[in-house]
Design brief:
The chain contains five helices and two strands, in the order H-H-H-E-E-H-H. The N and C termini lie far apart (61 Å). The longest helix has 19 residues. The protein has a two-stranded antiparallel ribbon with strand order 1-2.
């Protein structure tokens, strides 16, 4: 139904000015009067957050509250909040035990790759 409405508005933009009752009664279209936001802002914000998280995991730079895990950040665009899920720690899981991926030292080279150069 929603796709039919959006397609009709795309083909005939003047229908967007009509009230929902008229659209339903005369054009058999449901969902009038409400325009959904585009996904562009959400997609861009999600990509920005993903890149920032990757960069922070490589070389920490963010100062996050202690209740947020560096490796598990959720962005709620509806309520405009940021939170972390705290999973139950599994003593047999290498990742839960010590968060080994986050605590691993770099050694003498950047990302342990001699081609990227030595750390100073």
């Amino acid at each position: 139904m929603k796709l039919k409405y959006e397609k009709a508005i795309e083909e005939r933009p003047e229908l967007a000015t009509l009230d929902p009752e008229t659209l339903k009664r005369e054009y058999y279209l449901a969902g009038g009067g409400v325009h959904a936001p585009g996904v562009g802002p959400f997609t861009s914000a999600t990509a920005d957050a993903a890149v920032a998280t990757l960069m922070n995991l490589i070389k920490p730079f963010r100062k996050l509250p202690s209740d947020l895990r560096q490796d598990n950040i959720w962005h709620d665009f509806v309520h405009m909040t940021i939170h972390s899920n705290t999973p139950a720690d599994d003593p047999d899981c290498i990742y839960c035990k010590t968060h080994a991926l986050l605590l691993k030292g770099e050694g003498a080279y950047r990302l342990e790759m001699p081609a990227l150069g030595k750390l100073k």
